[in-house]
Design brief:
CATH topology of the largest domain: Growth Hormone, Chain: A
CATH class of the largest domain: Mainly Alpha
CATH architecture of the largest domain: Up-down Bundle
Strand order of the largest sheet: 1-4
CATH superfamily of the largest domain: MFS general substrate transporter like domains
Helix content: 55-70%
Strand content: under 5%
Radius of gyration: 30 Å
Shape: elongated
Number of helices: 27
Length: about 600
Amino acid sequence: MSKFIFGLNISSRNYLKDVLEGPSNNDRRKGKKASLRVQRLTMTSVGEIINALNGFGRFQHYLVALLTLKSISHPFHIFGQLFMVAEEPHYCRTTWFSAVGSNLSEEERLNLTLPRKPDGSLEECFMFTPVERDLDAIVEYGLNATEKCREGWVYPLKREPSLVTQFDLVCDRKDLNSISQSIFILGILVGAMVFSPLSDRFGRRPIILLSMLIQGTVGVAVTFVPNFTAYIALRFIVGASISGSLISGIALGAEWVETTYRPLTLIFSHVGFAAGQMVLAGLAYALRDWRKLQIVGSAPIFALLFYFWVLPESPRWLVTKGKIEEAKKLLQKAAAVNKRSIPPKTFDQLKPEKEAKSGSILDLVRHSHLRKVTFLISTAWFANSFAYYGLSLNVGSFGLDIYLTQLIFGAVEIPARGSIFFVMQWMGRKKCQSSFLLLGGVVCLLVPVIPKDLPVVITALAVVGKFAIAGSFTTSYVYTTELFPTVIRQIGIAVCQMVARVAAVSSPLARLLEKYHPSIPLLIFGGTAIGAGTLCFFLPETQGKELPDYLDDVIGNQNPNETDTNVLENGHVKHNEDNDISVQTKTTRF
C-alpha cells in the first residue's frame, strides 16, 4: 500500500491516505465521497457477473427465444387491417323501389334508381331521390334529382365478410379506415407513456406478462364487436398492450447479456417480427373472412402464457431497486443453466453502488448531454417510423399483388435486421444508424422518377428502401438502449417510441398530398430520412461499452463538473479538479 501511495503526487497521496486511514475532522465531506469511491473497489457489478457466467450462454438463448416468440404476433395487429379492408364494388340499396316495380329484373331496377358515371358504370355513393309515382310515370319521365345513399349499400360480389362490408366503410365512411389505423397507432403511443414508467417501477417481467394477457384477450374480443366504434376502441387497447410488451422486452433482453452480444437480443426479436409479417401474408390469403383472420391472429398468444413460470426478471433492475437477494438468485440460476461456477463471495459483493432514485422524464431535459442525446436519437426514430409506415401501409400501391408484396416486405426484413449485428460490429452504432437512414432516404427520392408502367422496378426500389429503413429501425432500438442508463432507460425508450408513433400517425396523412402531386409523399419521406441520418453523426458511440445504470454513468462521463466522475482507467488513477480520486470498475472478467 505504501508503494502505491508513494507513486502518486503529493496532493493525491495525502488525499488517498486520508481516505484509507479515515478523514480528518476538517474534511468530512470529502471523506464521505471518498469512502463511496473506495467501496466501489471491492464491489461487483451485475455486468461483471453476467460476463463471468457467459454473457450469451444457454440461459440467454432461452430468453432470446422467448422474446422472439412473442414478437411474431405483433405484425398481425399492426398490419392485419390492411387485408380486412379490400376494395369492394358497391352501390346504394334502393328497397323503396320494391313496392313500385316488384316485377322488374335487378338490372332494370338499377337503371331506374341509380345514376351512371360518364364511363357507364353505376354511381357508388349516390341514388335517385325517391318519388311518389307509379312505375309507368317513372319509366316515362325518369328520375333526375340525386342524393346520398339512404339505406346503406349492396355488395354484389358476395365475398367473404370484410370490415368494409361488415361496417359499410365506403363513400363518406371510407375515411374511418384510415382514422381507425391512426387511433390504433395512437394506442401504441399511449401504451409507451403508460407502460414504460410502470416497467421502471414494477419491473420488466410483470409488464410483459400483463401486456400479453391484454393483447390476447382484447384481440379476440375485437371479433365480436357490434359496431365500428367498438372496434376502434378495442384496437386502441391492443395497440397500447403491444407497446408495453415491446418496450419492456427490449430492456429485459439488453439487460441480461454482455456488451458484445447485446444487439442480438433485439435483432432476433425483430427477425421474429419480420417472420410474423410473412405469416400474416399467408393467413390473409387463406382467410378472407375478417373475423376468422382476427381470431387466428390473436388467439395464439395464449399459448405463451407459460411465460409466467419461465420468464426471468432483469437483474440490473432488481439491483437498482435494492432487491439484491432476488438478483443473486436469478444470477445463480443463470450460472447453473450456463454451467458456470461463480464463487459465492462474488455474489456477496453484489451491492448497488448507491441508493437509486427513480428517474423521470425531466432527467432527459435537465442535463445538457441527455437533452442532446434525446433530441438526436428521437429524430432518428421519427424518420425511421415515418418512412417505415409510409412504405408498409401502402403495400397495395406499388402495382403488384398485395399478398405477394407483403410476403416480400416481410422476407426482406429478415436479412436487413439479421445483418445489422455484423454491420454494427464493423461500423459501430453511429455510422450504421446514419448510413441506413441515408440509403433509405435516397431510395425514397428515386421511386418517383420511375414510370408507373414499371411496377416491378418500383416494387424493387421499395423493397430496397424497406431493407434500409428496417435495418435502421433495429439499430435505433439497440442504440437507444445503450444511450440511456437503467434508471431511466424505459423512459428514454418511451419518449423515442412516442415520437415514432407521432410519425406513424402522420405518415398516412402525408399520402393525402398525392392529390397535389404523386411524388410529394415520397419526397417528404426521403428528405426526412436524409436529414435525420445526417444529424445522427453528432451522437456518441456506444459500441463495446458497458450498459450505464445510473445518471452519473452518462452525465459524469460527459461533464465532470456536474457530478462525481469515475476516472480510473486501465489501472491508472486520474485526478479531477478537486484532486479527488475516483475509482471505476470496468472489468469484464474476474
